[in-house]
Amino acid sequence: MTSAPLTNAPLTAAPLTPAPLDREAGYALLAELAGPGAAATLGGLDALAPGFPDWIVTSLFGGTYQRPGLALRDRQIANLAALTALGGVDPQLADHVRYSLRIGMTREEVTEVILHLAPYVGLPKALAGLRVATATFAEAAADPAPAPAPGPETSETSETPDVPETPEDEA
Question: Which of 137, 144, 143 lies closest to 158 in space, CA to CA?
Fold first, then answer.
């Protein structure tokens, strides 16, 4: 049995926008998200896998992030969701929690992104994501480096949820 198309319009694909690869823009964005010393922290990885950190920064921050269509905030929400869903990528999730705070997302918004995932990715992964977020919020509160001021629509509070170690701790 075949189904009829939803519209009578011919099926044509919109052309994709070519992805830029802008090394300078990639390093500038990484510095905006992670702070000016971020590129230096990649030195250890470069010693192990020469060129790999540059490829990451150029292709990801200088390529994918430079595409039109999504605001930086939207990209961070997608990153928080994807990394929480993957699980087992705590350092990367912690980085993106920090990046989200640096671009003006509130702790409540980061928390809500992760909470929203529970029925989709499972309670254990959502709880693990909340544990990473809670630890990252605490580190951010103890860090003497000033974070950018929240925008006019956002405000941050110091309250973070208590997250049980395992789903059984919640029962």
Answer: 137
The span from the first CA to the last CA of the chain, in angstroms, equals 48
Contacts of 137 (CB under 8 A, 6+ apart): 97, 101, 107, 160
pLDDT, tens digit (0-9, with 9 covering 90-100), for 64-81: 999 988 999 999 999 999
The amino acid present at 104, given as its one-letter code, is G
Q: How many angstroms separate the CA atoms of 108 and 98, rounded? A: 13
CA distances for 50 relative to 12, 43, 44, 46, 47, angstroms: 42, 9, 10, 4, 6
* pTM, two decimal places: 0.74
pLDDT tens digits for 128-169?
A: 999 999 999 999 999 866 544 444 333 333 344 444 444 444
Place of tokens 């951010």: 140
